[in-house]
Amino acid sequence: MSKVRSEALSNLLEELEGFELNLNQYYDDAEPQSIIDSHLSGKLEALAHYCQAFGWSELAETIDKQLPLRCSAQETLSVIQGYVLPEIRHLVEQVDVDSEPAPTDWFWNFVHPRVKALAQPRFEAGFFGDAVEASFKEVNDSIKRFFAESEGREADGAGLMNTAFSPNNPVIKLAELDSETGRNIQQGYMQIFAGAMTGIRNPKAHGNLNPDSRKALHLIALASLLMCKTDERI
Question: b/e string for 132-166 if b means 16 or more Cβ within 10 A?
Fold first, then answer.
């Protein structure tokens, strides 16, 4: 969890923990009731967004079930302050205890510059899944542009990779194909590129997956490797 996002979440938790409802005012007058519902709803929507971003999907779902508020602030606060906030505090403590050190400049200098430009700001903001998705979208888009320029037609995803890197007639050749070793290299990377599209890019883009920081760094490194390998084409 990045320091900026951790502080923002902590401030939001404190605001909700200290949120007090004047029951007489709330139930006696429709105008302040509407204002309170709107104000509390905004804070809960922000909290649900944080929970979703950090992969706490059950808590995000619990919050979403409380919305929209319709004269139900008292019942909602009971659920939020009695269950959701203590659970989030517990999870935050676990993250702080178990968190890995942030990647050093060495890591980001090692990453392919186009992947770094997209992944680093997202990762440092705590959006690990978005960092991974952006990295593999860049891999796909890079191959897609080269393929379109070379072949004059469009392709995408795993199908693009299987065609572009095919050992039979590659558009992007990564090794000399007159030896078994070269053909194996070409075949192997074709499968890695295609597998990355099917197993990493597509689930992240379509399934709203949320890897933790450690897994995200592994996946960003893989995207970097694929971009670097593309630069080595012969």
Answer: bbbbbbbbbebbbeebeeeeeeebebbebbebbbe
Is the predicted pLDDT of residue 174 greater than 90, yes or no?
A: yes
Residue 234 CA to residue 222 CA, distance in Å, equals 21
CB 69 within 8 A of CB 40: yes
What does the pLDDT average to over 113-128?
A: 86
Alpha helices per DSSP H over the chain: 3-17, 23-28, 30-53, 57-65, 73-79, 85-98, 105-110, 113-124, 128-151, 157-164, 180-196, 202-207, 213-231
Amino acid at 32: P
Q: What is the pLDDT of residue 97?
A: 43
Cα distance between residue 16 and residue 63, in whole Å: 13
Task: Please report which confidence band the pLDDT of residue 3 belongs to, taking 50, 70 and 90 as the band edges.
Answer: low
Q: Contact at 8 Å (CB) between 17 and 85? A: yes
pTM of the predicted model, to two decimals? 0.59
Residues making up the chain, counted from first to last: 234
**pLDDT surpasses 90 at 208:** no
- How would residue 11 be classed by pLDDT, with cut points 50, 70 and 90? confident
